[in-house]
Amino acid sequence: MLIDYHLHNHFSPDSREDTRKIVEKAIEMGIKEICITNHPELHDKNTGKGIFRSKEARDRFRKIKAELDDVQKEHPGISIGFGVELEYVENWMDELTEFVKETDFDFILGSVHIVRSVIISSHLFADELYSKTDEQTAYNAYFDNMMSLVEWGHLDVVAHFDINKKFGHKFYGPFQPEKYKDRIIPILERMKEKGIGLELNTKCMDTKCKELFPHPVILNWAVEVGINNFTFGSDAHKAKDVGQFIQEAMEIAKKAGIKSISTYSKRIPTLHAI
Ligand SMILES: [Zn+2]
Ligand SMILES: [Zn+2]
Q1: What residues contact residue 68 under an 8 Å CB cut-off, 6+ apart?
Q2: Cα(109) to centroid of ligand 1, in Å?
Q3: Through-space distance between the first and last CA atoms of the chain, rounded to whole angstroms
Q4: How many A from CA of 235 to the centre of ligand 2?
């Protein structure tokens, strides 16, 4: 079964895409379940930095849910989940906890995009960190934030586990997970203890670092540690990118020993054999 559990539409600050076009593309790709996972923060137009305002986010996500309900009625052949991609920013987490509790999500992705106040997922900013910092310092700081996100815990699945390599590879060469094993394994173990799953994110398989997030070695470790829930996401911000490389990621998952994928409804996972 093909799923795409990481999608952004026109309600996300970084996408303008029409929801119906996303759904039509997913159906065309043979995908059975999708989940729309917008960012709750907005972007400051001058600095590009995220701003989280809880009332604005609540109002916007109410509109997202209403639109998804309408689109679901028009397309009964595909399941459309109501999700969110939360961001680890230390001083937002109390408000995000409230936001999560008050919103009836099917699925919550948790991400780290910011390291030492620099947005590392954007080419406009990532160089600012990597050009001035050695690999170990930058990547250790990234994984420390990841551990803080997992400890916070109000999420179902960690998104793009090693997005540090997206632009980091330009400065430091291909990402070698073995060098960070002592930081990565404890994160995976904590995820296992908390029932948090891992995303296979295909966004950069043909661009930037040209790899799946996470690296197959990390997938092997996740299986060894006993993580149960795995989702697939294209992280598409445009309809044309929906479902891209999900089939390829499925093959990588099988090679890593992953036996099932998870879908979520009201944050409860259902496992499907692959
Ligand atoms: Zn992200
Ligand atoms: Zn995303």
Answers
A1: 19, 36, 80, 82
A2: 9
A3: 7
A4: 5
233 Cα–ligand 2 center, Å: 9
**DSSP state string for 79-98:** EEEEEEEEE--GGGHHHHHH
pTM attached to this predicted model: 0.97
Q: Calculate how far, in angstroms, residue 85's C-alpha sits from the geometric centre of ligand 1.
A: 7
What ligand has the least distance to the C-alpha of 233? 2
pLDDT band at 123 (very low <50, low <70, confident <90, very high): confident
**Ligand closest to the CA atom of residue 15:** 2
Query: How confident is the model over 205-229, as pLDDT tens digits?
Result: 999 999 999 999 999 999 999 999 9
**Closest to 107 in 3D by CA, of 237, 239, 270, 226:** 270
Query: Domains of the chain (ranges plus CATH)?
Result: 3-273 (3.20.20.140)
